[in-house]
Sequence to fold (262 residues):
Amino acid sequence: MARMVAIALHESRDLPPGLIDVNTLAAAPEYPPVLTEFTVEKPEFALHSEMRTGAAPAVERPAPGQLTGAMQKFSGTAGAGTNYVLFFENGGYLGGTRVNAEGRWQWRRVLNWPAGDHLVQVVGYHPQGVTPLSTVAFTVRDSVEPPVVLGPREGALSGARPRFSGTAAAGVTKVMVLEGGRLIASAPVAEDGTWKVTHPHDWKPGTYTVEFVSVFSAIHSRPARLTLRVHGVPEGNWIRQSVSARAACSDACDHLPFSGGR
Fold:
């Protein structure tokens, strides 16, 4: 696309000559190398072979039954001599990755996983043949529900440093707190799904709309909204204006509001 734009600009009469380097346009385009995981010949042989040797690859992530995002990374270990690990689902080859010198491997699928339940088969390859299969089941989530705010209650009065708490859906790692569209706090979610956070700064008296967003992997939920009232006399209130409308008496007096010193 960039070459096409550059050629069109080079042929344009509205640009000064020499602005586009024609030598660059004449150079052959360079393409990235083919990914190693797609250079395996007949990978289905590893899935259906009756002769197997060694130990099956061990999958550490995702954990069995784990809730994951669409870009979940796989990781684990392989036995001595295993130099490549292949991945299959429903009989189809998904990709593969090399095993490093320490016997560890990592792999992330080129395409995003569709939402739902998945069962992936993993098999290792080494010069003596292929290993037994290992499997890992996991569930991909493409959306997450907003957190539930339990405190403070909607429209409740709060002190100068509000304390927020609630619950979040399974798998949510943190809840972001926003006010006026700006991030003001972040609360980690405990194993039992609860979260809490106290804002570290004093809030001025007034009414605020606070938003709470669940974070799961790279997925953000819709915001849950809460109207909060911080007690005190807000800026611009008629009480503050009434007090500041008069100059203070310099001598002792009986005026209201009384500000003299007798």
User: Anything to note?
Assistant: The first strand starts at residue 58 and ends at 61. The CA atoms of residues 85 and 203 lie 55 Å apart.
